[in-house]
Amino acid sequence: MFARPFIDSIDFAKNGGEMCGEIPLDQLPRLKDVLARTVGGLAYKLSGSCANDQYMLMLTLQGECRLSCQRCLGELVYPMNTVSHFRLLPAERLDEVNETDGVDAIEAVQQLDVLALIEDEVLLGLPFAPRHEEGICSPAINGLQQSVNPFAVLAGLKKKQ
């Protein structure tokens, strides 16, 4: 069983903490509905820093997620290689953050669930409608038989009345 890591976010940042490891994808329950298969894992590195009275966290994720291609419904290997920066703020100051500087703000808490933070970043980093590159696959409908146009059936019923 994988132990859920928790940190005191301000203390972690103030002391320049560093945590790294690998998380099995099957330990991220919110991803189970998004992924085609939950095999493998993601390597992560979480580091804290403090500069100019600003407490920061940096999260690096590397690995692969297996998604379902929305064009052919086949498996698609999606590389995950992200670096996210977070400014730690009290809850009442979260709305003061300028979103254009590339730094997200999260609430500074004593029990920050690192696994939930990683899961959030993975979900935000995945494409909404993943597809293979153009020309690699074809739409899944190509293999299906063409059926009768449902509007033609309705038109036939209308003529019978």
A few lines on this structure:
The chain has helices spanning 9-14, 114-125, 150-160, and strands at 6-7, 18-24, 41-51, 54-68, 75-89, 104-107, 112-113.
Which structural class fits the helix and strand makeup?
alpha+beta
So what's the oligomer here?
single chain
Give the averaged pLDDT, no decimals: 86
Structurally, the number of domains stands at: 1
Strand content: 25-35%
Determine the number of helices (DSSP H or I, runs of at least 4 residues).
3
Helix content: 10-25%
Instruction: Calculate the terminal CA-CA distance, rounded to whole Å.
Output: 67 Å
Any idea what the shape is?
elongated
Tally of strands: 7
What are the secondary-structure elements, in order, as H or E? EHEEEEEEHH
The strand order across the widest sheet is 2-3-4-5-6
Largest sheet: 5 strands, mixed
- Return residue spans where pLDDT drops below 50 for at least 5 consecutive residues: none
Radius of gyration: 23 Å
